[in-house]
Structures are given as C-alpha cells and as structure tokens.
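Let us walk through a complete example step by step. Step one is to write down the protein sequence. Step two is to encode the small molecule, 5,6-dimethylbenzimidazole, as a SMILES string so that its atoms and bonds are unambiguous. Step three, shown after the inputs, is the structure prediction itself.
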Amino acid sequence: MISALEEVIGRIVPADEQAILRAGDRLNSLTKPPGSLGRLEALAVRLAGISGVEQPSYGKRTVVVMAADHGVCSEGVSAFPQEVTVQMAHNFLSGGAAVNVLARQGGAEVKLVDIGIGGDLSHPELIDRKVRRGTCNMAQGPAMSREEALRAILAGVNVAEEAVKSGTEILITGEMGIGNTTASAAVLCALEGIPAETAVGRGTGIDDERLRHKIAVVERALQINTPDPDDAIDVLAKVGGLEIAGLAGLILGAAAARVPVVLDGFISGAAALAAKALAPESIHYMIASHVSGEQGHKLMLERLGLEALLDLGLRLGEGTGGALCLHLIEAVCRIMREMATFESAGVSGAESR
Ligand SMILES: O=C(O)c1ccc[n+]([C@@H]2O[C@H](COP(=O)([O-])O)[C@@H](O)[C@H]2O)c1
Ligand SMILES: Cc1cc2nc[nH]c2cc1C
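Step three: the predicted structure of the complex.
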C-alpha cells in the first residue's frame, strides 16, 4: 500500500516555469498598469504554472465533500451532536446544504464521499469509500491504525483520479464531520509544533468553558499518542481523522494529475499540511480560497506558505469557501483570454523614465 502512495508522490512534478513566465508576460501586455489586478495576477500566474498554459480554462469543476465521524466527540468538544454528520450527508445528497447552493452558482458538481461516517448511508450518488465507522477517541489512544490512515489517503487519491478521468478540470476540497476541528487542530499542533492553545478554535461555536476543555483534550491526545512530527501518516493515524486523511490523498491525486485543487477552510488546511509533508511539491497545486474564522487557520496558511483570496469570516466548511472562489478563478481565466493588449487596443504603455 505504501508503494501505491510512493508511486503517486513520484508523479508530482514542480509547476511549469515556462508557463509561469508566459503568464507574467501576458499580464504585463494587457491594458492595465502592471500589477494593478493585485492578487488576481498572482492567481493567474499560479494557475498557469499548474495547468501548463497561460490561458487556462476549467470546464468541469468538482467539490469533493469527505464525510466522517470522530470518536473524540465523546469528550464534548463540539457544539453539535455527532449524528449531525450523517444527517448533513443526507442534506448534501438532496442538494440542500450551503455548498450545494454555492457549487451550483459556481458551476460545480458536489460529490459526497463516505470515508468514515458512523451510521449507514445508501444513495445512488454516494461515493462509498468507508474505511471504518468513525475514529476512536484520540484522547484515549490512537484515532485509527496506520494502515487505516493509509487506506483513507489512498481512497482520496482514487477519488481524485476518478474525478479527473470523468473530466474534472479543477477540484475543491470539502468536508463534513462533527468534531473535526479538534482533530485538525491536533494535526496542526503535531506537524508544526504549535501549542494547542494557539491552534484550537471554537468550531461550530462552543463557549469559553468548552473551549478550555477542547484545548485540554487536544493536549492530552498529543501527550498520550506522541505523534511523530516527521511522519505525516503517523500524525494522521494518531490524532487525525478519516476525512482529513482522505482530503490529503485527494490533494496528492490532484497534484499528480496536474489539476488545481482549491482548499476550503481549517480542516482542508490540516489535510494540506499533511499532503505538503508527504510531498512538498504538491503545494504548487493548491489554491487557498479563504481565511476561515476558525482560530489557527491564519497560522496554518502561513505554515503552508499560501495567501488566501477571500477573508469573509466563513467557518462552515463543506467546501463553501472553495466554491465561492470559483468566481474569482473564472474571472482571472477570462482576464487572460479576453482582455485587450496595449498593442491590440492601440493604448500607450507606461512612460520610461
Ligand atoms: O472550514 C472551517 O474552517 C470550519 C470551521 C469550523 C467548523 N467547520 C465545520 O464544522 C464541523 C466541525 O466543527 P466541530 O465544532 O464539530 O469540530 C465540521 O463539519 C466542519 O465542516 C468548518
Ligand atoms: C448544521 C451544520 C452544518 C455543517 N456543515 C459543515 N459543518 C456543519 C456543522 C453543522 C452543525
């Protein structure tokens, strides 16, 4: 199984430098002062490097929502009961969740993956990749075995590969899992050596008292499991989650296929940290859509070395921020394709001094 992962990682190549240079030249030839489209210009250059062309376009767009349950919920770390995970899974499948609305508006389809929901779920549209029924309580022992974490990562790789095979040109990470901000914070602490107090946030909206308890739970999980910071699979197995591991795999699969992968919020960021640890070059294929309202996400993005496009205080997850970002991605693609150049429009360039 490890060799399957090594094979995927081996296929991840750096971004296309020539396309990056061509995109920069094109941006400077367009009828605007150089750099005046701000971070949209950086986005255009990044997309060119990923896709290998300076005028990319993304037809089929897919939001992959990975859903799983978390044993750590028994510690009382969320504002909501665990059964919300499976209930929301039904909502995604019937098209009524926020991400369904935003994906429709952004021209994307939503694919729900059961990678570890506790309850039973059956639907013709569901992608069933259940590794196990939720994790164990990481405050008492490892969340899952190393083999299960690896299976979840490879399931994510496979979902990316299948999506690309059926025509997807851009992937968006989404997730659903009551308790998963606890696991994501623990992954951030373990991989980056950050204190729990800095990494842990309010998730679905816990009060001060529960927040203090959640910090203590993460501290305990780290203390009893001693995840190896240099071994991302160990970290995912001991203090991660099935959807976090699955999304790490999805990101690696996207990078191997040279498909851009738009990251959503805090949980997607934890998956991205793990993907980056497994395959540093995968970072070039990631686009950070937004800074989540979840404490720790800003620091997470700094550690990833990514600058987010939006800062709207979103803290919903599901892939909502990523889906919103599709509008900006479409905008830069159109800029690159449709804007006139100084030459074609007969506009004078900057005066040389
Ligand atoms: O994406 C984010 O940044 C984000 C921040 C806070 C909460 N969430 C969502 O809320 C759920 C986890 O919250 P909690 O409090 O149960 O850990 C999970 O389903 C996530 O999708 C997501
Ligand atoms: C209702 C609800 C919807 C969500 N979507 C993602 N996480 C969620 C958490 C809750 C509680």
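Step four is interpretation. The beta strands are 60-68, 108-116, 127-128, 168-176, 261-263, 286-288.
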